[in-house]
Amino acid sequence: MKLKKELGLFDVFSISTGAMFSSGFFLLPGLASQHSGPSVILAYFLAGVLIMPAMFSIAEISTALPRAGGTYFFLDRSLGPLMGTIGGIGKYFALSLKTAFALVGIGAYTSIFWDIPIKETAIIFALVFTLINIFGARKSSGIQKIFVIVLLVIIGLFIADGLGNLFMGDQTSLRFHKNEFVPFFAGGFDGLMFTTGFVFVSYLGLTQIASVAEEIKNPERNIPLGMALSLMVIMLIYVLGVFVMVAVIGTESIASDLSPVASAATYLFQWLPARAGLYMIVVAAIFAFASTGNAGMLSTSRYPLAMGRDKLFSQKFTSISRFGTPVPAILLTAGIIVVFILVLSEEGIVKLASTFQLFIFMVINFSVIVFRNSKIASYDPGYYSPLYPYMQIFGIISSIALMFYMGWAPVAFTLCTIVFAFLWYRFFVRSKVKREGAIFHWFALLGKYQHDELESEFMTIIREKGLRQEDPFNQTIVRAQVNFVNNTISYREIINQVAVSLSKELNIESHIIETEFLKTGPIDLSLAVPEVSLHYAKFRDIDHPKLHIVLSEKGINKPMENVDLEFGNSINVFFFMVNAEEKPKQQLRMLSGILDIAERDHFIKDILLLKDKRKIIEYLLHNKQYITFELLRNTNSGIFINKKLMDISLPSDVLVVFIERGTDTFAPKGKTILKENDILTIIGETGSVNTLYDRFIFEDDQGL
């Protein structure tokens, strides 16, 4: 069962932004400044810059493969199940630790004013977020948006009040002195680089959105845009917010302060009643930790789901509830987080999580290089990383450098996690999994072997994503040639006749077209539909895709050698499509669109009942983006009669694709004069088509 697509652009922004708040802003500035002094401000900026290659890489892969599991799924499909197991288990533990740490942060900040146990409070919130996630990603993301809005408002006030007082207010009351920033590089270059790696964990939430990519509407737009907006906002908040903390509290004081935002708030917000500013910051901190905890629970729980689908975990974790959420995976994640809260201390978690994440980002950047070089036609991102491959190479080198600066203990932790994941793969997974990653397709180009099922899986994903707005699918269907044949004609004769017809349209020799169609004659299981035969070809300089449809009421026998199918070889509907060689991925999307039509219930029966081309086209485009109406006097459409097409008033996002005049059907030009009884075929955006329907069909039917 697939997860519901419920998350929009603001949901993406909220989940990503919410996952980056909490410790990065409310806790880490003090700890980080111990190693770098005032240059901790620059460290936050550098960390944001250095995560960009991983952000671009994850955005590209997410739009190509929007699947639950995020990093695990990407590594598995690019580098194979061994690396997928290593990345999946490691990232799962890292995110669980980060989520546990955020929940502990809730307890820590609430304990400032209320005498309540920290860990018990954290466990209560873990249970609350478990219930929220069980009842749906939409509800979870709705809570997330509230958290993020409250956070942005309060932190915005904190930064604005701090900067206003520092540069325009009474500086002496805030203990602001220029020498707080001198020397700026107190820890030297090594201290700056260590701190950059240390605060890297602050940005890890940016990429958590990849693990819920399967639940995002229009992922090709919303994922990269949401991540980019989130990173810009968070970088601005971190840099300006830490600047205010250093300036207000002072270099020496912040280094020993575990709640620097609260300490700074005691000097700010003088326009509010006593301690009101401090209370407001504590509320913001609780919302921040809660936001990270909720986003962490949402995204982390998708790892067992994805790994269960691929038999790396028990398949029990693939179960989807009636609420559209993976309840077993959520409960497992909640249990692990509670264990972490109970048995682990907070010290060192940030450093360990950052180091392993740097390793993950290194291989994610490499994965984009693998996917691009694999030449898999069905790898079809809606967004491509800029500056490829230099962006990815920079990301790999910078990740290795930061890992080196983090020290041996975190590196040893990363190696131990890798060894554990390898043993898990070796003894539990290897015998159950036979697939390989895209890297084997790269090897195939070097004379090695590849895993063909990967292309079929990517084709399935293309079909689930559907057509893009710019794909000329509707126009191609409208312009399709439709022919009816009897059962005395052979399969080869049908192909020959279509090839001859297309030869005249394309100015390409018919035997070349026929040869290309015969290459796609054998059944491709990812393109197989009972009683339907799909043929396709690609040629250079095709200005618009061409489609021929052939219908046979009694069926035509199609030779199928060495193909084991549950259905027979009698074909009633043939589709022949020709696309531009320069746009192979567009061809795959349009073929998937035809398959979606052919898989409708009772498709063969319904389409064979139609004997009129216009009705067949209307049936194929039964999606409210298509309309036909006749120009008749004494109706609303009568105003178009005897006018040039360029002079009639139609919405800007619709197109008159052809006109049926008597027995002739033709594509009109701007100077075409419309005549009475002309039948206009129009395609366009749903809203405008509905408007035309109301005006020229519904109202006329009502006699208005």
Features of this protein?
single chain; 704 residues; alpha/beta; Amino acid/polyamine transporter I; Mannitol-specific EII, Chain A; Alpha-Beta Plaits; 3 domains; four-stranded mixed β-sheet; four-stranded antiparallel β-sheet; 28 helices; elongated; PTrfase/Anion_transptr; monoatomic cation transmembrane transporter activity; membrane
Structure description:
The chain contains 28 helices and eight strands. The chain is α/β, with parallel strands linked by helices. The protein has three domains: 415 residues, Amino acid/polyamine transporter I; 150 residues, Mannitol-specific EII, Chain A (3-Layer(aba) Sandwich), CATH 3.40.930.10; 78 residues, Regulator of K+ conductance, C-terminal domain (Alpha-Beta Plaits), CATH 3.30.70. The strands form two sheets. The protein has a four-stranded mixed beta sheet, sandwiched between helices. A four-stranded antiparallel beta sheet has the order 5-8-6-7. A hairpin with a 2-residue loop joins strand 6 and strand 7. About 1% of the residues have low confidence. InterPro entries: AA-permease/SLC12A_dom, APC_superfamily, PTrfase/Anion_transptr, PTS_EIIA_type-2_dom, RCK_C, RCK_C_sf. GO terms for molecular function: monoatomic cation transmembrane transporter activity. Keywords: Membrane, Transmembrane, Transmembrane helix. This is Amino acid permease.
